[in-house]
Design goal:
The protein is mainly beta. It has 2 domains: 77 residues, no CATH class; 93 residues, Histone H3 K4-specific methyltransferase SET7/9 N-terminal domain, CATH 2.20.110. Helices cover 0% and strands 63% of the residues. The chain has no helices and 17 strands. It has a 13-stranded mixed β-sheet with strand order 2-6-7-8-9-10-11-12-13-14-15-16-17, with no helix packed on it. The protein has a 4-stranded mixed β-sheet with strand order 1-5-4-3, with no helix packed on it. A hairpin with a 2-residue loop joins strand 11 and strand 12.
Length: 170
């Protein structure tokens, strides 16, 4: 007996009508191909994403409630670089997504473009945060948190010049 993969060619669907099962998006029980749309509580469209065979594939655009573009991303087989922007055009945060899960280094910026924080997400165990680092307005490390299997293991605090002055181990 031969098994055949059936792919629904739905042109459009609301994101709330899609279900994420494992690494695939389904629409009415079948892997979704087409455009998915997201609405806010007021019913305004705030995002659109292309899907192919159940994975994000192609472009994704997110808008604010006034219709201004907040982010533009490209995905291939569920993997893509994610960026959002402040209204002044500076990057707000950026990182890699695999099937809507953060992976690798993520950076967060203030409205002037300075780095506020960095996170590192596991590439082996998807969805597992390994560490976070927070920076002051001058870009000097203020604190860091290290995780093991989702639990805080170490917290380090630094003075204004970046010298370690306190460490908590759990």
């Amino acid at each position: 007996m031969t098994n055949f993969l059936v792919v629904v060619s739905a042109q459009n669907a609301l994101m709330k009508e899609l279900s994420l099962e494992g690494e695939f998006y389904f629409y009415r029980g079948e892997k979704f191909s087409g455009l998915g749309f997201l609405k806010n509580k007021k019913g305004q469209f705030i995002a659109e994403a292309s899907f192919k065979k159940g994975k994000m594939h192609g472009s994704r655009v997110c808008y604010n409630s006034r219709g201004r573009i907040l982010s533009k991303d490209k995905f291939k087989k569920g993997k893509g670089r994610f960026k959002t922007y402040y209204s002044n055009g500076h990057i707000k945060h950026e990182g890699l997504l695999i099937n809507q899960t953060k992976v690798g280094l993520w950076k967060f910026y203030d409205a002037r473009g300075g780095v506020k924080a960095k996170e590192f997400w596991s590439t082996n165990t998807l969805g597992s945060l390994l560490w976070e680092k927070y920076f002051n307005k001058l870009g000097v490390l203020e604190s860091e948190v290290i995780y093991e299997e989702g639990v805080i293991k170490v917290e380090n605090y630094f003075d204004e010049s970046g010298v370690l002055f306190k460490s908590n181990k759990y």
